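Section handout 9: paired folding examples.
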Amino acid sequence: MNDFNDDLFGDGADSIDDDVSTGGFGEALARCAREVADFVDGEGWGQRPQLFALVPTSVLAAAEPALLEELTDGSALTPIQQHNLPEDITGGSRALDEFLATTSWPEGVVGCALVQEIVILPPAAETDLDDALIPLLADRDAADDAARHAAHSHPDRKDGRLIAAVVKDGPSLTLLQMQPEGDEDPFAPIELLLYDNLAPGIVHALYTTFDVVDDD
């Protein structure tokens, strides 16, 4: 569950195709984020969070020559889906935070991307959440469950998909895809919205996965 600001309910966003500042892996990161978003969107909505390792395409091609033809699209980074997320992990959950806190990467992985479905609430909904949480603040699990229930049942909720990607010691990019509503064409090309300082906690958590030493 994520509670963002009014910009998510207005016109405060740019499309990723409009203007993404680049530098170093910046352009490759934006391209990877788009590729990851298209891949996940192809499986529809109602999915669990998914994690991707970002590997330099040149390194991957050297390690797997058989994939060379598939990797010649000009991108400097290639996303590789990870399949080790526990089944109890859901978008915005404590279980996801705990999983990221113990995640590490082998040599050769220079970045990662996380995709999760979220509930978006306007700031006015904070009062409703406070009313649900105050009696339960002494029990973190109960408070988290109450907040998630209040968010999912709120009449002004919006559903979306958050795509966060980082490069170790490099740039980050966080995008939002809104779930189509009502008469919107569910098969139309997806639109990824770009906001300033979107989900900084998640970005920080992804960066810290590169601080964990992999013993293997």
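Moving on to protein 2 of 2.
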Amino acid sequence: MSKSKTTIKNAHINWECEGKFNFTTGFGATKAESIIANYAALIAPLILYFFSWQELGWSWLQVVVAALLTLDMIGGVLTNSMGSMKRFLHTDKAVEVSWLGKLVGSKFLFPAIHFQLFAVPLCFDVAWSYAFFWYGAMMISIIVIHLLPMYLHRPVALLVVMMSIIGATLIPAPMGLEWLAPIFMIKLVLSHGVREEPYRPTLED
């Protein structure tokens, strides 16, 4: 059996990056993975708008910015955590992809270009230190994780996530977006940064 195709307790692990790379799903996405990657995150801004945002007196610009940030953060968590994307992010083989694919697959450059949190102090009533703190915490966490042995990546990433959830209750954030920074950390530190096995629903020949 190929080392890149392994079955453990009926869980089929396949590291083969076959076909064409997709920005939101990686390689070899199933129909279910594609639906989750492209549509599941749409639920979040709708729920937040009807149960939270419309009562805050935001302008339409603030609502649009909050919705885009929500889609990006939650969609990124889902996309980066899927087996089809993990297959690409953590493969040991050289894979032919475009410059965009190389950017997505970069351990450090991809997180480094995530300046979305700086839109928060730009559009909402919160200090710029909010964005600088969480961006710095994310980059430091990424660097530390990749300096550690791989067997420590997941627990350390989860420690970062838990500390972020606690920190979000202590660090001032705009009302209605208190949850944004921890999900930012989950997206980049846990979902993108931690290697996990890319499972498939059936064993491929």
